[in-house]
Design a protein that fits this description.
single chain, mainly alpha
Length: 293
């Protein structure tokens, strides 16, 4: 291997790690919802692109940077997720999985068609001044927008960890996830905790969308791709594991970047699914998942 190839490989891995942090934040929302409620959010990718469109609209019409509008988008998504769970998903808790699937698939179709009706099928991106900036660390050159997005994802993941480990409601959610019946016995309002959980998961994916729009343009057709990508990440990392979601995001980000270097960028999905198959063969519960969960 030549030094030029090794430098290009290191550059690709670094790029993949930065993008992978945003992927991990996206998957974190899916993992949180499943880990607590045992409900798979099949509208996850559609929620992701709604977050991207909201951040794009804020920049396009009000010149607000996505990093500035991100907190507002996260709050809006929390409220939307809370209301969606209380009003629509809650009656389906405990029902057969195929009914939950059809319900959330219907939500996904509604969201993506609203996007199509409002903004159309064309791609929409933003032009930030930082897109022309970069940081040099030795021989490596880091894109400023990817670095800022990765830092934002790390900060949000850290705040989420503090929420679940340091706050009363976060500890209550963890208790309900570990023992639903026990939580009911001690008087916890599990129905409300489930709604808060879905709101937190929605806020994560909304924030991830605000970060992702700084990296790539958004189109409605990305929705299904992001839903599938989120599933791949959480399965690789381990269903219900927050740390696993972040680790899976990093691995998938690196695999896509390396695929673009070694082969054709259009083959990145092949590398990601190859990694998924390998993990399922060697460790079916995921890298950081627990057996029997």
């Amino acid at each position: 291997m030549t030094s030029d190839f090794l430098l290009a490989l290191a550059q690709a891995i670094t790029k993949g790690l930065l993008t992978g942090m945003v992927y991990g934040l996206m998957a974190l929302g899916l993992s949180v919802i499943f880990g607590v409620m045992r409900v798979v959010n099949f509208a996850h990718g559609e929620m992701m692109i709604v977050g991207m469109y909201l951040a794009w609209a804020g920049f396009e019409y009000f010149q607000i940077s996505p990093l500035v509008s991100l907190p507002l988008i996260a709050v809006l998504f929390f409220v939307m997720g809370y209301a969606l769970q209380r009003g629509l998903i809650s009656p389906f808790i405990g029902r057969p999985e195929h009914q939950q699937f059809l319900l959330l698939l219907g939500v996904a179709l509604i969201l993506v068609n609203i996007c199509l009706a409002v903004v159309g099928p064309d791609s929409h991106g933003i032009q930030l001044d930082s897109q022309f900036d970069s940081y040099e660390i030795g021989p490596l050159v880091l894109d400023a927008v990817r670095l800022h997005a990765a830092i934002g994802a790390i900060v949000i993941a850290g705040l989420l960890w503090l929420f679940f480990t340091r706050t009363r409601i976060g500890k209550s959610i963890r208790a309900a996830a570990d023992n639903n019946m026990g939580a009911l016995v001690v008087g916890l309002n599990v129905r409300r905790l489930y709604a808060v959980t879905f709101g937190v998961g929605a806020a994560c994916v909304g924030a991830a969308g605000a970060l992702m729009i700084t990296i790539i343009p958004v189109t409605p057709s990305l929705a299904a791709e992001y839903t599938l990508l989120a599933f791949v990440i959480v399965i690789v990392g381990g269903l219900g594991s927050m740390t696993g979601a972040l680790a899976g995001g990093l691995l998938i980000g690196v695999s896509e970047a390396v695929a673009g270097l070694l082969a054709d960028p259009s083959l990145k999905s092949m590398f990601s699914f190859g990694l998924l198959i390998l993990v399922l063969l060697l460790r079916p519960q995921g890298l950081l998942g627990k057996r029997g969960t």
